[in-house]
Each structure stands twice: as C-alpha cells, then as structure tokens.
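cron nightly-structures :: item 1 of 1
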Amino acid sequence: MIGSDGRAVGKKGGDRSHLAFDPVPHREPLVAIIREIEALAGLRGGDATGATSAEASRAADERAFDAILRRHPRDGRGFFSRAEIIAGYRAFAAEESFAIDERSFVARIRRRPVRSQSGVTPLTVLTKPFPCPGRCVYCPNDLRMPKSYLADEPGAQRAANNRFDPYLQTWNRLAAFHATGHSTEKIELIVLGGTWSFYPEAYQVWFVKRCFDAMNDFGAEIDGREDAVPAQVDYDAFEASAPEGIRTGPLYNQVVQQQLREQGAGAEGSAAANAEQGERATWEELEASQKRNEDAVCRNVGFSVETRPDHVSEAEVLRIRRLGCTKVQLGIQSVSDTVLDAIDRGHDVRDTRVAMARLRRAGFKIHAHWMPNLLASTPERDCEDFDRLFDDPDFRPDELKVYPCSLIETAELMRHYEAGEWRPYEHDELLGVLTHALERAPRYCRLTRVIRDISSDDIVVGNKLTNFRELAERALAERGGRCEEIRVREIRRDDFVSDAVELRATTYASGNSEDAFIEFTTPGDQIVGFLRLCFPKDEGFCDEITASALIREVHVYGGALDLGARGRGHAQHQGFGTRLIEEARRLAKERGYRTLSVISAVGTRGWYRKLGFRDGTLYQHADL
C-alpha cells in the first residue's frame, strides 16, 4: 500500500531505499521549507499549475530554492531531496492548511518538468538478457544486459536492480514519479532490450501483462510487489564467467544461451522453461489486465517495443498489435547496403522498406534508429544517407533517434579500430553531421534523441559529450538555419492564446500510402497538438482495416495533467484532440473513405468511444 508519505512500503524488489523516508520526525524543517516556498510562489506569480511566463523566473526560483534548503538542513547536516519535501507536503497538508495547492507546489520544485511536458509520462522497462539474432560489429557485449545495452546506463541500472522483473520495474518507477511530482495517470510504456521479436511469445505476453498489472495496481493503491517473484538468474555471473574472447568477439549469444540453459531460464524459449521461471501468461489473462486498465487511474496511453527490420513479418505485426502496442522502435541504422554489409547487420535496405511498409499499413508509429559514423561511412556519406531517409517515400519515419557510433571495448569494432579500418569522427565532423540532420528533419518528424546516453567510462575513444544536440542547435542558429522538427517546437509549459492557434496540414507520400500531418500551431510555430492520418493505397493484410483511413497518432502537448484536469494556458483538456479528430473525419470523408479507424492505446479506448468510435478486434472504428 502507499504510506502516509505518498510512497510504498515493503522490502522486496531491488533497490528501494528511496521509499523508506518518513517525514513525521522532520516535521519542523519540512513545514518551514514549504512555507518559504509558498512565499516564493506568491512573489513569482503563476497560474493554477504553477507555470510562469519566463525561464528567468525558473532560474531565479532554483537559486532561491537552494538558499531555502541551506537554511533548513536535514538533521542539521545534509539537505532534503525534492521527493522528501513533496512527501512532507502530502503528509502535513491537511493539518497545516498550506496556501499553495499540491499541483502548484509540485510544479514549483520539480527538478525535471520536461519529463512529462510532452503531455504523457514515459516509463521505460528492459527485458532480460537474451540471445539476439544480430551480429553487428558495433554492438557491446555486456552479458549482464539485453543485447546493445550497458550496465552503466540509468534505465539499465533500474532494470538490473529489479532483476528485470516487469512488475517491479513498472511499479517502482511509478512510485519514483509520484514522489517527485510527476503525473502517473497517463503513461507511455517503452519496452527496450535486444530484439523484442526474438523473445518467446509466452515471455512477451507475460512481460506485457505484468507491466499492465503494475499500472493497474499502482493506480488503485495496491502494492503487489511482495507477490512478485523475479527470476533468480544471477546475471552478474554471466559477466564473471565470460571467456576472454567476449572482450573483442561476437560471443554474447553463445555465453548468454549457455548460462540461461544452465540456470533453467529458457534460453531456447520453450514454454516449459518459461513456466519454470513463472514467465508465462495466456492471451486471455493479458486481455483481462488490459480491460482493467481502460478505466484505471494509471492508464497506458502509448506502448512501444523495439525490433529489427528483418523480423517484421505480417504475423509479427498483428501479434504486437494484439499486445496493445502502438509504436515500434525500428533499428534501421543506415539506408546504405554498403554500410549494412560492413557492419554485419544481417539485413539489407529492402528489409527496411518492407518492414516500414507493413508497420505503416497497420497504423503503427515508426520510431527509427539511425547511426552515423558507422564502419564504411564518412561524414559526407552520412549526410547523404540522412537525406535519403526523408527524400525516399519508402522511409520517412515519424520519430528518429540519432545515435552516432561509439567505440565500446567489448564490441567487435575494436578490432577494426586497432587495424585502422574505423575511426571516430572529429568534433567538427560530428557537429557538421548532426547540424545537417537537425536542419533537414521535416516538421512531421520528432528527433527524440541526438547522442546516446552512454557513460564516458565505457567509450574507448571519440565523442563523450552528451549535450551535442544543444551544440548543434546553436551552430545551426549561428549560421542562420532553422529547425522545424517536432521536439524543438513543442509548446511544453509555455502559455499561449488558444484562439490564436492555427490548423495546418502537411501531406506527403509514404510508400504504400499518403500521410497527412495535421497540427495546431501558435503564431510563433510552436506545436500545440497533432494528428497523423494515413490514406492507404492498398488493401493490406489486416481484414479489419482493409478499406479504412487510419489515425496513427493523436498527441496534445503541454504539461501532463491528470485525467479531466484543466489548466489555464495549457493545451491538454482544451478540446484540441477532439478538433483534430473532427478534421481527420472531414479529410477522410472528402477522399471517399467510409470508415475511419484508429490504432488506439488501451488507456485511450474510452476517449475514442466518447467520440463515436466502436470497438473492433485490434482497432476502433468510426463510420463516416
């Protein structure tokens, strides 16, 4: 259950020391801190959600906040964390009758409001270490992690602390969000780790079900972590027993498979092995948990998995849709067969074309991964490759992660580096590629990340800066360039006049369809909300949507508000989503479609029903 401090009580499930804080013994300094923050809020001003109109105010608040903490130290020595102060507010609010409401208070002291300012709160979980079908030369061989991940990455550390158990990862992350003042009512579930499509189906169904169970329980103030039984596999032992060759050779699969087999963890994916580990659920059990989530307090409003182009069969597309997935992270890495061959990727560009066509035809959002500085490439070729990614209608992803290749000691790339066959780009070379990418990315695409968050200790040579996006944006501005991609234009917490927003549509060919990117923008071209609408040119492979126009995504920006909440000056719950749906209906009907279908997330089904959509098997539909 959730205790008086707003956090959970219990002892199982990984590193949970941050849940143990009891504010009651610290009442005097905590109340003093809260009173001073009240006064600070009154001086700075702000609306019902604590928003102010200038970034300078937030910077000033940070300085004032630090001074407050110094005046009221914890136990006369250290400082209270933001989570502890929020816990104190929640514990004492009823008795102290604070003048500032909880939403404003949390917004005032929250360290990383950007996490939930896209309108939803992203929650990342990792699957367990498991063999991967890839042989990519750049991929690290960290046996404690699913393929391509490193133990020093923040998300990977959280997963390892919870023994990769999906329930524990999800529940504990929700508790951390709640403690630090982030909304937990609209959750985008992001499942990472290796190649999702290569994991056994029984494991997939169980993993997703347990994530949904955790969201359902947390919203209902149920702590089911005591009943979670994470796999007792000692993943650290994988690393300790690794042969010497793992440092420079592609032995990950052999070692992980052998270790999993020895520990009875189902390396070969048999139903019996998964059952022994408790990692099995039926489709009916998953669907029951999904049904419960439709009306849960903590709802899933987006769900993505990651896989490879050569594993995106028609059957796989329909299977991940049945899991509730709405977006696929697709590791394309390059659209050059020369580069793909050099890195031993194991698929070609044609596989990427087919995979993206299938995913788009089924209504999925496509979140591609692209890597400059790969073996056999150059800065000039990378810029050409990026241009091809959006000039060719067969590609044109909705979102993109740009991951320049990093040299990790355990990757096979080390041998190419030592032989002089590969080198990391110089600072100015990499800056030129990333600046080119920012400038050329179209307004319908969101560059979610530029540079992967890899610890500098893990990188042998090359770039170790993590703020390259900032450097590239600055370089682009200095030369008079402009960036139009979605992330740079998001409204976030900025105030705006709703009557001044404009509706605009960008249409573009996308292989087997034509797409319309419909957006509400401010006079300054900030994006308030958008809808992705697909007009298929063929019947496809899913009978349910054969003759339908497809809504692939609806997203309204602004700080994530709780369900039904409203905030002056913010985009969410102002009717923009409904107006975008109305425009999609109009455009689809204008083009002769009789049905409009939507690839809805489990937690958004109710909203679409209110707008006249009826439930199908995998999609929801509205007659035009």
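cron nightly-structures :: done
The first helix runs from residue 27 to 44.
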